[in-house]
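Progress against Task 2.4 (sequence-to-structure conversion) is shown through the following example record, which the project officer requested during the mid-term review.
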Amino acid sequence: MSANISAAGPVTPPGIIAPNADRKRVAFATMVGTAVEWYDYFIYAAAAGLVFGQLFFEPAGSGFGSILSFLTVGVSFLFRPLGAFLAGHFGDKVGRRPVLVTTLILMGLATALIGLLPTYASIGVWAPVLLVLLRILQGLSAGGEWGGAVLMAVEHAPSTRRGLFGAMPQIGVPIGLLLASAMMATMDMIFPGDAFLTWGWRIPFLFSIVLILVGSWVRRRVEESPVFTEIAERKEQARTPVVDLFARFTPLVLLSALVFAGNGAVGYMTTGGYIQGYATNPAGPLALDRGDVLWAVTASSVSWLIATFAAGWASDYLGRRTTYMIGWGLQGVFVLTLFPLVNTGDVRLLGAGLMLITLGLGFTYGAQAAWYTELFPASVRFSGVSISYALGSILGGAFAPTIAQWIQQTTGSSANVAYYLLGMTMIGLVSTLLLRDRKGIDLSPTNEAEQQVGIYAWKK
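Structure tokens generated for the chain above:
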């Protein structure tokens, strides 16, 4: 019988988790916190596609105003690496839990303040300036959020169930999209027409205050990561974890970033607000009802959640890299069917196109938490995971809606947008092939030497 399996089921190697740790509570806390954090982030993206062009960038005109609005979605990504550097530094030095609570509060306050902002009609150019500043704060928070959440989940998990436990913060992202889209759709029903532009869009932002209180309470109740606890007890925290990371693992950071970029570019067609804006634009070819499109996005977030959870579970049996390869195949096929379905003008087929694309998105996202955690050595793990994710979000998701909008307006063809997404999918696939699967590797700081070898597919 192996060291990781007993007659009672999977157990964790010594030194990874305290015997009395409540793994389920930790997994639940990371899911709730991530859902709250990304609700805030996606509410902004939805509003960027639906109202910000009109309310904050109206002098630029409807076409260019939409591009500027989507640019503000992307601008925050430029500050994610800074958030990741700061969170990685403190997460590797003082612990995972305090960083998670701090990022959650920062994100929520920025979101609530956006809901109180005056529009361009009220204060002129200060309106978009303040909007961008608050979006930057969201970017700083998001840059540090994901790495801490996945490490708390995966480092607490049994070695044979890391994919499953790591899927919990991952499904928090589609839950955040579900909440954001459902909230926006509900406000569209309660405040139809101009009332939505006046007050309806603000309420989901202000609701973030409630979510901050819930998420913060849940996160404060979990224990510190056992891996960091062991590092602290051994007094082996890196003095400059970010410097150490790039000195030894720059190729790993770049490849890991490109893996996520292939997923992010496609995912941000909805989470970045592009499909919502494309389908509901009154001057566009479809001009679909705003509420119907938001409910379709809400439905697709459910299928994304299911696919993400299934991928995390499957990766414990198939391996992380094999699970990704399945995802890239699904994603490559369905990016080519997305716009033909959307362009029918039938909201049911639009919803079907979005749900199909989430199958690929889920299988290139569900295993990410476990794989990233297993790729980086313990002493620089928070920095490596966070910075790779942040860089990948810039290369993939940051300006994907802006690029898609520019391609559509320049060429007049949504097919060219699909080719762009297919190209990003291929980049993710190739990057996946260049990394090794390290499923089940000992994550303890006592195993740091083994964690630094066997990373790249081209090295033995």
